[in-house]
């Protein structure tokens, strides 16, 4: 067919589906989750105060942002807007930070395009 390959698959009831189409899995939302590595801003030994988070998405509405400091449990810090969201972190302290974005929605799939964090040197950082 014009040099294009399309993938089809079936289920146990005999139904056939074409892959990479639609926003649901047989009517059920497809959960989205992306988790970044631990980022230490090129200063792994320094304590930091993480003040503000900028998240850039495509179709980010109804997605949630969570952060983890120093590899600990993720805490939800806010709901994202469609394309750009600023979240105040309240000077959370740690040596590194990870971001997790989750969405469980039947609408358009969320894409994490990028993120940035504003931080200050913490009290225990070296001079």
Brief write-up:
This protein is mostly beta strands.
**How would you sum up the global shape?**
elongated
Give the percentage of residues in beta strands.
over 45%
Query: What's the CATH H-level superfamily name?
Result: Galactose-binding domain-like
State the order of secondary-structure elements, H for helix, E for strand.
EEEEEEEEEEE
What class would the helix/strand composition place it in?
A: mainly beta
CATH class: Mainly Beta
Question: Which residues form runs of ≥5 with pLDDT under 50?
Answer: none
Structural description of this entry:
- With 127 residues, the chain is an all-beta fold.
- The protein has one domain (28-121): Sandwich (Jelly Rolls), CATH 2.60.120.
- It has no helices and eleven strands.
- The protein has strands at 8-10, 16-18, 24-25, 28-29, 32-35, 48-58, 64-69, 75-79, 84-94, 97-103, 111-121.
- It has a four-stranded antiparallel sheet with strand order 5-10-7-8, with no helix packed on it. Strands 9-6-11 form a three-stranded antiparallel sheet, with no helix packed on it.
- The radius of gyration is 19 Å and the shape is elongated.
- The termini are far apart.
């Amino acid at each position: 067919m014009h040099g294009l390959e399309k993938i089809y698959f079936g289920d146990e009831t005999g139904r056939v589906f074409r892959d990479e189409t639609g926003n649901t899995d047989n009517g059920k939302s497809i959960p989205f989750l992306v988790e970044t590595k631990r980022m230490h801003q090129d200063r792994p030994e320094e304590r930091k105060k993480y003040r503000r988070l900028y998240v850039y998405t495509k179709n980010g509405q109804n997605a949630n942002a969570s952060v983890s400091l120093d590899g600990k449990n993720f805490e939800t810090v806010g709901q994202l807007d469609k394309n750009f969201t600023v979240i105040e972190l309240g000077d959370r302290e740690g040596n590194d930070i990870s971001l997790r974005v989750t969405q469980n929605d039947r609408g358009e799939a969320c894409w994490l395009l990028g993120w940035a964090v504003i931080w200050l040197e913490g009290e225990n950082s070296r001079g």
